[in-house]
Amino acid sequence: MSKISKFFKGGGSAASKSRGGPSPQEALARLRETEEMLSKKQEYLETRIERELAIARQHGTKNKRAALQALKRKKRYEKQLNQIDGTLSTIEFQREALENSHTNTEVLKNMGYAAQAMKKVHENMDLNKIDDLMQDITEQQDVAQEISDAISSRAAFGDEFDEDELMAELEELEQEELNKGMRDVRLPSVPSTSLPSRPGKIPACHFTFLMIKPCLSTRKRAEDEDEMKRLAAWAS
Protein backbone atom coordinates (compact mmCIF):
# COMPACT_ATOMS: atom_id res chain seq x y z
CA MET A 1 0.00 0.00 0.00
CA SER A 2 1.39 3.41 -0.96
CA LYS A 3 1.98 6.25 1.47
CA ILE A 4 -0.83 8.25 -0.10
CA SER A 5 -3.29 5.38 0.44
CA LYS A 6 -2.21 5.08 4.06
CA PHE A 7 -2.60 8.80 4.54
CA PHE A 8 -6.12 9.00 3.17
CA LYS A 9 -7.28 5.76 4.80
CA GLY A 10 -6.01 6.87 8.20
CA GLY A 11 -3.42 4.11 8.58
CA GLY A 12 0.28 4.22 9.48
CA SER A 13 2.29 6.20 11.96
CA ALA A 14 2.17 9.41 9.92
CA ALA A 15 -1.60 9.40 10.04
CA SER A 16 -1.66 8.76 13.77
CA LYS A 17 0.74 11.61 14.43
CA SER A 18 -1.29 14.00 12.33
CA ARG A 19 -4.43 13.37 14.35
CA GLY A 20 -5.20 16.42 16.44
CA GLY A 21 -2.53 18.47 14.66
CA PRO A 22 -3.04 21.80 12.92
CA SER A 23 -5.03 22.00 9.75
CA PRO A 24 -3.29 22.88 6.47
CA GLN A 25 -4.80 26.35 6.60
CA GLU A 26 -3.42 26.95 10.10
CA ALA A 27 0.03 25.68 9.14
CA LEU A 28 0.10 27.89 6.05
CA ALA A 29 -0.87 30.91 8.15
CA ARG A 30 1.97 30.19 10.59
CA LEU A 31 4.48 29.85 7.76
CA ARG A 32 3.40 33.15 6.25
CA GLU A 33 3.77 34.85 9.64
CA THR A 34 7.28 33.42 9.95
CA GLU A 35 8.18 34.64 6.47
CA GLU A 36 6.95 38.12 7.33
CA MET A 37 8.97 38.17 10.57
CA LEU A 38 12.15 37.03 8.82
CA SER A 39 11.64 39.62 6.09
CA LYS A 40 11.53 42.35 8.73
CA LYS A 41 14.65 40.84 10.30
CA GLN A 42 16.36 41.08 6.91
CA GLU A 43 15.52 44.76 6.62
CA TYR A 44 16.91 45.37 10.13
CA LEU A 45 20.17 43.54 9.39
CA GLU A 46 20.65 45.36 6.10
CA THR A 47 20.23 48.67 7.94
CA ARG A 48 22.80 47.64 10.60
CA ILE A 49 25.27 46.55 7.91
CA GLU A 50 25.03 49.93 6.24
CA ARG A 51 25.54 51.64 9.61
CA GLU A 52 28.63 49.57 10.49
CA LEU A 53 30.12 50.38 7.09
CA ALA A 54 29.58 54.06 7.76
CA ILE A 55 31.31 53.73 11.15
CA ALA A 56 34.26 51.93 9.56
CA ARG A 57 34.63 54.63 6.94
CA GLN A 58 34.33 57.32 9.57
CA HIS A 59 37.17 56.00 11.74
CA GLY A 60 39.35 54.70 8.94
CA THR A 61 43.00 54.86 9.74
CA LYS A 62 42.40 57.40 12.52
CA ASN A 63 40.98 54.76 14.88
CA LYS A 64 41.74 51.36 13.48
CA ARG A 65 40.41 49.53 16.50
CA ALA A 66 36.92 51.09 16.21
CA ALA A 67 36.92 50.60 12.47
CA LEU A 68 37.83 46.90 12.81
CA GLN A 69 35.13 46.36 15.47
CA ALA A 70 32.58 47.89 13.11
CA LEU A 71 33.67 45.58 10.28
CA LYS A 72 33.45 42.54 12.58
CA ARG A 73 29.87 43.44 13.53
CA LYS A 74 29.11 43.93 9.83
CA LYS A 75 30.41 40.43 9.11
CA ARG A 76 28.18 38.93 11.86
CA TYR A 77 25.15 40.76 10.48
CA GLU A 78 25.95 39.55 6.98
CA LYS A 79 26.23 35.98 8.29
CA GLN A 80 22.85 36.27 9.98
CA LEU A 81 21.44 37.75 6.78
CA ASN A 82 22.69 34.78 4.80
CA GLN A 83 21.18 32.39 7.33
CA ILE A 84 17.84 34.18 7.09
CA ASP A 85 17.97 33.95 3.30
CA GLY A 86 18.45 30.20 3.58
CA THR A 87 15.69 29.89 6.17
CA LEU A 88 13.29 31.86 3.99
CA SER A 89 14.07 29.62 1.05
CA THR A 90 13.33 26.53 3.18
CA ILE A 91 10.10 28.01 4.53
CA GLU A 92 9.00 29.04 1.05
CA PHE A 93 9.65 25.51 -0.22
CA GLN A 94 7.74 24.02 2.71
CA ARG A 95 4.83 26.43 2.23
CA GLU A 96 4.57 25.58 -1.46
CA ALA A 97 4.71 21.86 -0.72
CA LEU A 98 1.99 22.23 1.91
CA GLU A 99 -0.17 24.27 -0.46
CA ASN A 100 0.25 21.61 -3.15
CA SER A 101 -0.56 18.85 -0.67
CA HIS A 102 -3.67 20.67 0.46
CA THR A 103 -4.71 21.20 -3.16
CA ASN A 104 -4.14 17.53 -3.98
CA THR A 105 -6.13 16.52 -0.91
CA GLU A 106 -9.08 18.64 -1.98
CA VAL A 107 -8.84 17.33 -5.53
CA LEU A 108 -8.79 13.70 -4.39
CA LYS A 109 -11.64 14.37 -1.98
CA ASN A 110 -13.79 15.86 -4.73
CA MET A 111 -12.88 13.02 -7.06
CA GLY A 112 -13.98 10.58 -4.37
CA TYR A 113 -17.32 12.39 -4.07
CA ALA A 114 -17.72 12.21 -7.84
CA ALA A 115 -16.92 8.48 -7.85
CA GLN A 116 -19.52 7.85 -5.15
CA ALA A 117 -22.09 9.84 -7.10
CA MET A 118 -21.37 7.84 -10.26
CA LYS A 119 -21.65 4.60 -8.29
CA LYS A 120 -25.00 5.68 -6.91
CA VAL A 121 -26.25 6.59 -10.39
CA HIS A 122 -25.19 3.21 -11.80
CA GLU A 123 -26.65 1.16 -8.94
CA ASN A 124 -30.07 0.78 -10.59
CA MET A 125 -28.71 0.15 -14.09
CA ASP A 126 -28.82 -3.39 -15.47
CA LEU A 127 -26.49 -4.04 -18.40
CA ASN A 128 -28.76 -6.77 -19.75
CA LYS A 129 -31.70 -4.38 -19.80
CA ILE A 130 -29.57 -1.76 -21.52
CA ASP A 131 -28.61 -4.30 -24.23
CA ASP A 132 -32.26 -5.24 -24.74
CA LEU A 133 -33.23 -1.60 -24.94
CA MET A 134 -30.57 -0.86 -27.55
CA GLN A 135 -31.74 -3.85 -29.61
CA ASP A 136 -35.33 -2.61 -29.45
CA ILE A 137 -34.21 0.84 -30.55
CA THR A 138 -32.27 -0.64 -33.48
CA GLU A 139 -35.24 -2.75 -34.58
CA GLN A 140 -37.62 0.19 -34.44
CA GLN A 141 -35.19 2.30 -36.45
CA ASP A 142 -35.12 -0.44 -39.12
CA VAL A 143 -38.92 -0.57 -39.20
CA ALA A 144 -39.12 3.21 -39.51
CA GLN A 145 -36.62 3.10 -42.38
CA GLU A 146 -38.65 0.44 -44.21
CA ILE A 147 -41.83 2.49 -43.78
CA SER A 148 -40.07 5.59 -45.07
CA ASP A 149 -38.73 3.70 -48.10
CA ALA A 150 -42.17 2.28 -48.86
CA ILE A 151 -43.84 5.69 -48.67
CA SER A 152 -41.21 7.42 -50.80
CA SER A 153 -41.16 4.75 -53.55
CA ARG A 154 -43.02 5.43 -56.82
CA ALA A 155 -46.61 4.14 -56.83
CA ALA A 156 -47.14 1.31 -59.33
CA PHE A 157 -50.88 1.81 -59.91
CA GLY A 158 -51.92 0.69 -63.37
CA ASP A 159 -48.70 -1.16 -64.12
CA GLU A 160 -50.60 -4.49 -64.30
CA PHE A 161 -52.02 -3.58 -67.78
CA ASP A 162 -50.05 -4.36 -70.94
CA GLU A 163 -49.33 -1.13 -72.78
CA ASP A 164 -49.04 -2.90 -76.18
CA GLU A 165 -52.52 -4.36 -75.82
CA LEU A 166 -53.91 -0.94 -74.96
CA MET A 167 -52.30 0.61 -78.06
CA ALA A 168 -53.72 -2.15 -80.28
CA GLU A 169 -57.19 -1.57 -78.88
CA LEU A 170 -56.86 2.16 -79.48
CA GLU A 171 -55.86 1.58 -83.12
CA GLU A 172 -58.92 -0.64 -83.63
CA LEU A 173 -61.17 2.08 -82.26
CA GLU A 174 -59.62 4.66 -84.58
CA GLN A 175 -60.06 2.33 -87.57
CA GLU A 176 -63.71 1.76 -86.70
CA GLU A 177 -64.34 5.49 -86.55
CA LEU A 178 -62.57 5.96 -89.89
CA ASN A 179 -64.68 3.23 -91.53
CA LYS A 180 -67.85 4.74 -90.11
CA GLY A 181 -66.93 8.10 -91.56
CA MET A 182 -66.27 6.59 -94.95
CA ARG A 183 -69.70 4.90 -94.94
CA ASP A 184 -71.41 8.21 -94.26
CA VAL A 185 -69.86 9.84 -97.35
CA ARG A 186 -72.53 10.22 -100.15
CA LEU A 187 -71.23 9.61 -103.66
CA PRO A 188 -72.80 11.44 -106.63
CA SER A 189 -75.65 9.53 -108.36
CA VAL A 190 -75.31 8.23 -111.92
CA PRO A 191 -77.55 9.96 -114.42
CA SER A 192 -80.52 7.76 -115.45
CA THR A 193 -80.79 9.20 -118.95
CA SER A 194 -78.33 7.81 -121.42
CA LEU A 195 -76.32 10.23 -123.43
CA PRO A 196 -76.64 10.12 -127.24
CA SER A 197 -74.08 7.92 -128.90
CA ARG A 198 -73.24 10.54 -131.45
CA PRO A 199 -73.87 14.18 -131.88
CA GLY A 200 -77.23 15.18 -133.09
CA LYS A 201 -79.90 17.63 -132.51
CA ILE A 202 -80.79 17.78 -128.93
CA PRO A 203 -84.48 18.18 -128.22
CA ALA A 204 -85.53 21.26 -126.39
CA CYS A 205 -86.61 19.33 -123.35
CA HIS A 206 -83.32 17.50 -123.23
CA PHE A 207 -81.44 20.76 -123.65
CA THR A 208 -83.22 22.23 -120.67
CA PHE A 209 -82.57 19.11 -118.59
CA LEU A 210 -78.88 19.07 -119.52
CA MET A 211 -78.51 22.71 -118.51
CA ILE A 212 -80.02 22.03 -115.08
CA LYS A 213 -78.23 18.72 -114.54
CA PRO A 214 -74.66 20.11 -114.63
CA CYS A 215 -75.64 22.75 -112.12
CA LEU A 216 -77.00 20.11 -109.74
CA SER A 217 -73.94 17.90 -110.24
CA THR A 218 -71.52 20.76 -109.51
CA ARG A 219 -73.28 21.65 -106.28
CA LYS A 220 -73.37 18.00 -105.22
CA ARG A 221 -69.65 17.62 -105.98
CA ALA A 222 -68.82 20.63 -103.83
CA GLU A 223 -70.79 19.19 -100.92
CA ASP A 224 -68.98 15.87 -101.30
CA GLU A 225 -65.58 17.56 -101.33
CA ASP A 226 -66.43 19.46 -98.14
CA GLU A 227 -67.51 16.22 -96.51
CA MET A 228 -64.22 14.53 -97.53
CA LYS A 229 -62.19 17.41 -96.11
CA ARG A 230 -63.98 17.18 -92.74
CA LEU A 231 -63.44 13.41 -92.72
CA ALA A 232 -59.73 13.80 -93.51
CA ALA A 233 -59.36 16.42 -90.78
CA TRP A 234 -61.00 14.13 -88.24
CA ALA A 235 -58.85 11.14 -89.27
CA SER A 236 -55.62 13.11 -88.89
UniProtKB/TrEMBL annotation:
The keyword Protein transport applies. The keyword Transport applies. Residues 1-24 have a biased composition (Low complexity). Residues 1-25 are annotated as: Disordered. Keywords: Coiled coil, Cytoplasm, Endosome, Membrane, Protein transport, Transport. Gene3D superfamilies: 6.10.250.1710, ESAT-6-like. This is CHM4C protein. It comes from Pycnonotus jocosus.
